[in-house]
Amino acid sequence: MSANDLYTLPFHTIGTADHNRVGGKCASLGEMTQAGVAVPPGFAVTTDAYQAMLDHHGLKAEIERHLAGADPDNLDQIDRAAQAIRIRIRSHHLPEAVEAAIRAAYAGMCAEAGIDDMPVAVRSSATAEDLPDASFAGQQDTYLWVKGADAVVGKVRDCWASLYTTRAVAYREKNAIPQVDVLMSVAVQKMVNAKAAGVAMSLDPNTGDRTKIVIDASWGLGEMVVSGVVTPDNFRVEKVLEEILDRKISDKHVELVGDPELGEAVERDVDDARRKIACLTDDEVLAVARLAKRLERQNKCPQDVEWAIDADLPAGENLLALQSRPETIWSQKPKEKPKSAYGVGMMGIVNTLNNPVGSKTRG
Amino acid sequence: MDVKKPLFPSAFDVKAPEGAEGWQELYPYYTRFQPARRAEDDEKFWFCNSQHWPNPLRPFDVIFLDFAIKCLGQYNSRHLLVPPANGIDYRILNGFVYFSPVAVAPQDIEARIPQFLDRAGHYFGNWNDLLANWKTKVMGMIDAMNAISFEELPDVVPVEWVKEGRGLDNTNALFEAYDKLIELSYKTWQYHFEFLNLGYAAYLDFFGFVKGQFPTIPDQAIAKMVQGVDSELFRPDDEVKKLARLAVELGVDGALMSGSVDEALSAVGKLPNGAQWLAAWDKAKDPWFNFTSGNGFYSTDKYWIDHLDIPLGYLRDYIPRVKAGERIERPTERLLAERDRITAEYREMMDEEAQAVFDGKLGLSRVVFPYVEDHNFYIEHWALGVFWRKMRELSKLLSKAGFWPDEDGMFFLSRNEVRDVLWDYGASWAIGTPNVGSAIWPAEVARRRALVKALGSESPLPALNNPPEVITEPFTIMLWGITSDAIDRWTGSADEGDGLKGMAAAPGTAEGIARVLRSPDQLGELQKGEILVTPVTAPSWAPVFGKIAAAVTDIGGMMSHAAIVCREYGLPAVTGTGNASARIKTGMRLRVDGNTGSVTILDKATGGGLVLPAFTPWMDP
User: What is the DSSP string of B308-367?
Assistant: First the structure.
């Protein structure tokens, strides 16, 4: 294995054996890419790269020193220690071989797309030892519209540092998880020029009803939906018949879009003409629903999918999956069993005749 | 609920439409709300079955109301002992038919279960053998009815009869033919229900199980899992499509496109390949044109085989589409693949235990369901078509004998009055005097014709008296879509301004201009892309489904013919709206959502600005 393969892995080369060293997000991006799902191209910076960073600068000992004798219930103390660790991680250069691998992988992406200094998103990809819900909004860092190799390298390091947020450190202290054993991978992924984006759940999050797909969508990048800054449009789709059951169109006042001049994602007001109209056509709603359905089938359990519609791609090929992870709330609930055994055969028919559907009490 | 103020009026407070006073004498005493039984009849909830009887009955047509409802009842109450359900009581009010399901007393249900298990279990266990036998029996009925003929009484008894010492005259054959035809149709109606109630019961069981697994699953998704694609109900339309394609292939299509039926067929006959096409046409005609544009319950029903202009009209719609390269055939392979996909995807979402139960119930449903669809062709279309044709011949014969001036006069008499007329005809012939009826019936038929017409001037009330707290009768729910929700819709408690709610009968959405039709004779008015709004549709309307954008009906459950056809033709449909055909006017712009069962009036202005107020059941429509 060359140094580049050790420290970075393009999504399409991530194998099952690599899952531990690329984290959940990258593993899912890798699986989707290889299953032929349209995913923006990119690569994982492996946990080996992070490990090399720690080893090269003796950071493990430093981290342990900062946290020695920390009281998990003393948040002030934890906060001070966590902040110091983040500063320490950010203050070091990356080991030469790691930085070279990241630069090479980024250069490869740019060359493939034919775009110099292609804007990318740099996102943390948590590993199994990490907080189960660490990936929730804001907990670990995501950087949008990052351009140029220097910036990419810097943001990868920032992601590593975000492993030591106060909350994460406190959680690990409380649960006696050795802090330095927790590793992190980072995803570097082509930035989507999102016309609209959002989240799709392959079950109804309100009821756990698996025959529905529920979609939240808004203009621009999906972060506005995830963070709850806008009230998104909401669509409910019948999963099997692939029919839209209802549409709730909201007033979507802001959107997050890439600003090529500034080289970053900026929040801006949505123009009046678009605020109160649906941000997805019916065909797009159904395409998102089919994507969620496909990912559920592939992963064999209900999924929570982040997606975007790329304004630069032709219709029909413009829907991209950004992330897919198992739905955790309803999937972990034990399924309610019917109170009595199912009626089968003739007795089933007798029971049905005696208590037919549609016979509910008038409201 | 306030018992003193019923949701719907009492039958005894409903007035006759103007000009229809005295309508009661058109119908037998046992079909009427009798003041002597007011207390009992006011206790019951009655709903108007405008799905099967959308128009006021002519006196003769009471025959199939009698037969259908009696035979439905006998299977529930006397053959199978369906635990919770006896038959359905029926009445005629202002010419329309009202139903009241008869429940079994709760304390008696348990005792019926062992009998039901034994009797119904035998049918389910031997379904295919018994059904093969059924087909033989029904074909026997059809053949026997076809063999019946009504002969005019001759001037003299044939001399051979005299010389061979027969000792009888020609009236025997006439009387026997009439009695025989009625007896055959009565038996046919018993056969009609021999399997039907069981078919619904098995389907309802499957339906209830799937709803239990997925409470929000659309009804139509469940129906799609069991529906066949090669039902004989669709054959007539398929045959016309085949004939259209063959006409284009043989180059005889041009000759078919104009003129009367006789003119078009004779023009085809003169062409080189004409004979081949005409042979195909004749072959398709029998049996597949034994197909009514109504539902077989009325003497006014037009059967394709007697009105070849109907299939020819459809042929003329299809030919240009074939020439334009359109695929007009039903995509049966795709429909089957879709059925399998839907079934597999829902099944996948169940746990293993439920999957095993699902497989069992689905299996039984798929065994019994073809009957639910196919029986309609054999009974209503084919057998009853022969019945009406023969009865029309008799009416014509008696018209010739002077009893009424119009060929259809007989249908304004009850079936027992017709028996009297036959006696009058035979006796006067024997005595050698003019028959008495010729002096009586022409005026009486005209009077009754006017009464029936006046009855048709008003839409029927959807229901009478107070609905029960819960609707539980399984067949009522299944066939007529009479659920607690439906009653809420009728009473307007679920009313939403410019919207109507109904059953989500077939998925999809469409927008378009409404075309309100009250009779199959108006089918020709439909323009391409319009939304059909009608009290009820019949399977034989299938050919127009290639033209319309969506369908909306007043009444119909998930297994109503309209729902079956709409799903088959991939059209959005909302059934059981209660009053769409009264509230919507031709020309209004509508949005039909077959996924949620809602109909929205988008633009009333195109309807001429005239909109009925929201329907209030006790208000005169």
Answer: THHHHHHHHHHHHHHHTT---S--HHHHHHHHHHHHHHHHHTS-HHHHHHHHHHHHHHHH
Instruction: Write out chain B residues lying below 8 Å of A361, CB-based.
Output: 469-470, 484
CATH number for domain A3-190, candidates 3.30.470.10, 3.30.1490.20, 1.10.8.280, 3.40.50.300: 3.30.1490.20
| Interval A32-67: pLDDT, tens | 999 999 999 999 999 999 999 999 999 999 999 998
CA distance B26 to chain A (A): 36
Q: Is the minimum CB–CB distance between A334 and chain B shorter than 8 Å? A: no
**Cα–Cα nearest to B373, from B212, B232, B527:** B232
In contact, A24 and A38? CB cutoff 8 Å: no
ipTM of the complex: 0.81
Mean pLDDT of B264-268: 96
* Amino acid identity, position A282: D
Claim to verify: residue B487 and residue B550 sit in the same structural domain: yes
Yes or no, beta carbons of A342 and B508 under 8 Å apart: no
Q: What pLDDT is attached to residue A19?
A: 85
Judged by CB atoms closer than 8 Å, whether chains meet at B349 and A241 is answered as no
Which of these, B574, B559, B562, B558, lies nearest to B536 by C-alpha position?
A: B562
Which regions of chain A are under pLDDT 50?
A: 134-138, 359-363
pLDDT for res A140:
62
Q: How many CB pairs lie under 8 A apart between chains A and B?
A: 122
Q: Which residue of A has its CA nearest to B198?
A: A349
Whether residues B596 and A246 touch (CB distance < 8 A) is answered with: yes
